[in-house]
Every structure is written in structure tokens, then in C-alpha cells.
């Protein structure tokens, strides 16, 4: 017999929702949630579909956060079965998005239905936020929805993202934050000339080296709770014409900072530029802010998640701030505590992406247990 969560995950995989195309996933889910008593608001922003479904009212506001889009499958021949035709083999469900994150989204919806059936008059607001632009540019997705929430005064207390976070077994890792990322492209200007006449040139390599050395050697901080120390890494350095008798006119450098909540992007930018200026460099710099860090300190959400995950994994979860980006970075600045809990991530973005049936079947129970702890 096909379970509810398996049937729904299959329905979602059948819809080839490559970013930013939602391919009808959200309409299917909104229909189900409406039947369960949720109020559904579709927010179409640019080419992106977003769904905001709520049940109840007032605080606290608990949001389940996910995405319906998937990354492209790559060549069909590389897959053992069609990536957009769900297939169960060897105790696993195969298909693009099975793990990232249509399995979690299906489990969210089944858990929400079960929870409101058992607690029709639960305290506070229970909500689901879905976007079809998580895997792409992430511009018209949760970033813009969060801006709209800020404008209309929509508060969020707790946010649970269903990204595949587990390492070997469901619930063995609880993500409680993530580092920020900031990139720079630096151009140091000099004056080109003959190496035999350095007095008639300005060598940008010589001018830049002490500043780059200082940037690379600097200790930014000693870490922050479970975060490692902030780190600056030079990733590209280029200057020179290829000839050994020419002082180049320009030096180009790229570097990236992975930073913990000691810092904001703005403060790091001004610290770096202060060093460049202190060395008297004539430079131009382009910054790209990839996302501020977020961190959920000890509190009711983390405590509830730790207890529930331990029950499912058989041991207390590792509490981590590692891993890649997620849309939680846009929700955290609204003042929300954010955690990420989802299935094992071993096959995500790969060919033959899959989720173990045992994990998929356990996910609605896990999410429902979290809702019970927080809103019942
Ligand atoms: Zn994902």
C-alpha cells in the first residue's frame, strides 16, 4: 500500500519544476491545504511562484519553509530511471527532488494536515512558505517574500526549513545557523613601464603585496559559539603581461570571507578597505554580499528540536552551523529563530537522486512531533 507521504512525493516529482518553474506543484499543495482549513495566498513575483498558507492566528508564528523547484537533472542517460518519473527500487524513492526537497515538502503537508485535524484550535499561527526559486538566483523567492512580510508587519517566531541536513541517518544533525559569505574583486592601479626604469613606473604588485599580506594574515575573531573563526581567503591573483621586462599597470585580486555573527558585511567591507587605504593603494573594489550569517541561540525551538531528533536518530544530534546556503538566511533577519531538519543529503543535486523510504515515512511523524512540542 502506498502511504500518503509517498503518494504526494511522487505527485511532486512527476511535475518537472526546474527553477523557476513551479510546474503546478504549489497549486496541488494549496488545494490540499485549503481542504484542511488553511488560508492560501499565492504570491507570483516575476517568474517565481510563492505560496503562503496559514492556519490559526496571532502568536507564536511557526513557519515550515521549503522549495518546490529542483536543479536540472543533466543527461537522461546518466540516470537509471527517468528523473521526472518517480520510481521505487530497493527501498528508495528515486527522482529529481526526492531528497532536495520534494520529500520534505510532501512530509510538511501531511504533517500539517494531521496536526490541524488533531488540534483544530491550536494556539498561534501555523504556516507553510514555499518558493520555486531556491536553487536559482533566489531573488524573486523568499528574499522578496520576506521584504513583503517586513512591510506588512508579519512576524515570524520560529522557522523550520526542510532542507536535507542529515548526514547518515534521519535526525543526526540539527542545523542551527550558517556563516555569512562576502566576495570581493579588487583592482589595484599602477603605472606600466620598463623594468629597467622603475622610477618611471608604479608597480601595482609591489604596492599591493603588503596590504594583501595583512589581509591574509589577520585574525578576524576567535569563533562565535558553534561557529568557526571568520576566514578571508585569497582565491585569484593576476597581474603581468607575460613579458619579464614589463612592470604591469594593474593587479587583480579576488577574495572571499566566510564570517560568523561577530560581523556584518558592511563592517567587514570597511575593515578591508581601511587596510587598503592605509597602504596608500589606488584601487577599485566590487563587493558581492552573498548572505549575512544567522544563528539560533539556545531556546525553545532548539531544545524542542534536539529532543525530537534524538528520539528519531537514537542519539542527540550534532548541532552545526556548516553546509551551504538556504532560504532561512532571508527569514532570520525578520527576528525568527531558524533551524533546518531534513533527510539525508548524500544524493542531492546528483544523478539517481533518492530518499530512503524509511526516512520519507518517518518525516511527517518527525515534523508533527515538532509541531506538537511547539504549538499544541
Ligand atoms: Zn534544497
Commentary on this structure:
The chain is an alpha+beta fold. The protein has two domains: 4-178 and 293-375, Zn peptidases (Aminopeptidase, 3-Layer(aba) Sandwich); 180-291, Alpha-Beta Plaits (2-Layer Sandwich), CATH 3.30.70.360. It contains nine helices and 19 strands. It has a six-stranded mixed sheet with strand order 1-2-6-3-7-18, sandwiched between helices. The relative contact order is 0.19. Bound molecules: zinc ion.
Small-molecule binders here are:
zinc ion
Level of helix content? Answer: 25-40%
Strand content: 25-35%
CATH fold-level topology of the largest domain: Aminopeptidase
Q: Name the structural class.
A: alpha+beta
| CATH level-two architecture of the largest domain | 3-Layer(aba) Sandwich
Supply the number of structural domains.
2
CATH hierarchy class name of the largest domain: Alpha Beta
Give the strand line-up of the largest sheet: 1-2-6-3-7-18
Mean pLDDT: 95
- Helix-strand topology string: HHEEEEEHEHEEEEEHEEEHEEHEHEEH
Can you tell me the CATH superfamily of the largest domain? Zn peptidases
- Give the CA-CA distance, first to last residue: 30 Å
> Per the principal axes of the C-alpha atoms, what is the gross shape?
elongated
Q: What does the radius of gyration come to?
A: 24 Å
User: Which sheet architecture does the biggest sheet show?
Assistant: 6 strands, mixed
What is the count of helical runs? 9
Amino acid at each position: 500500500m502506498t502511504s500518503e507521504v509517498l503518494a504526494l512525493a511522487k505527485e511532486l516529482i512527476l511535475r518537472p519544476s526546474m527553477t523557476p518553474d513551479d510546474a503546478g506543484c504549489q497549486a496541488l499543495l494549496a488545494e490540499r491545504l485549503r481542504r484542511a482549513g488553511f488560508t492560501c495566498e499565492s504570491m507570483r513575483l516575476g517568474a517565481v511562484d510563492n505560496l503562503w498558507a496559514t492556519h490559526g492566528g496571532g502568536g507564536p508564528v511557526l513557519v515550515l519553509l521549503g522549495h518546490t523547484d529542483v536543479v536540472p537533472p543533466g543527461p537522461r542517460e546518466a540516470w537509471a530511471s527517468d528523473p521526472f518519473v518517480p520510481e521505487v527500487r530497493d527501498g528508495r524513492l528515486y527522482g529529481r527532488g526526492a531528497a532536495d526537497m520534494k520529500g520534505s515538502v510532501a512530509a510538511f503537508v501531511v504533517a500539517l494536515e494531521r496536526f490541524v485535524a488533531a488540534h483544530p484550535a491550536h494556539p498561534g499561527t501555523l504556516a507553510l512558505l514555499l518558493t520555486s526559486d531556491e536553487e536559482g538566483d533566489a531573488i524573486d523567492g523568499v528574499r522578496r517574500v520576506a521584504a513583503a512580510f517586513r512591510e506588512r508587519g508579519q512576524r515570524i517566531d520560529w522557522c523550520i526549513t526542510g532542507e536535507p541536513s542529515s548526514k547518515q541517518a534521519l535526525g543526526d544533525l540539527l542545523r542551527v545557523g550558517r556563516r555569512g559569505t562576502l566576495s570581493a574583486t579588487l583592482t589595484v592601479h599602477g603605472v606600466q613601464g620598463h623594468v629597467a626604469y622603475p622610477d618611471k613606473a608604479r608597480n601595482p604588485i609591489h604596492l599591493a603585496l603588503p596590504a594583501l599580506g595583512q589581509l591574509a594574515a589577520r585574525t578576524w575573531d576567535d569563533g562565535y559559539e558553534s561557529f568557526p573563526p571568520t576566514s578571508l581567503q585569497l582565491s585569484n591573483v593576476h597581474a603581468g603581461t607575460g613579458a619579464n621586462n614589463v612592470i604591469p599597470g594593474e593587479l587583480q585580486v579576488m577574495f572571499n570571507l566566510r564570517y560568523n555573527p561577530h560581523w556584518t558585511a558592511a563592517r567587514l567591507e570597511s575593515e578591508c578597505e581601511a587596510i587598503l587605504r592605509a597602504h596608500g593603494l589606488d584601487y577599485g573594489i566590487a563587493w558581492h554580499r552573498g548572505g549575512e550569517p544567522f544563528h539560533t541561540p539556545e531556546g525553545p525551538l532548539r531544545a524542542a528540536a534536539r529532543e525530537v531528533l534524538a528520539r528519531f536518530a537514537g542519539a542527540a544530534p550534532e548541532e552545526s552551523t556548516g553546509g551551504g546556503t538556504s532560504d532561512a538566511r532571508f527569514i532570520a533577519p525578520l527576528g525568527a529563530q531558524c533551524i533546518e531538519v531534513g533527510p539525508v543529503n548524500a544524493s542531492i543535486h546528483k544523478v539517481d537522486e533518492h530518499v530512503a523510504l524509511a526516512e520519507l515515512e518517518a518525516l511527517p511523524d518527525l515534523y508533527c512531533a515538532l509541531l506538537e512540542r511547539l504549538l499544541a
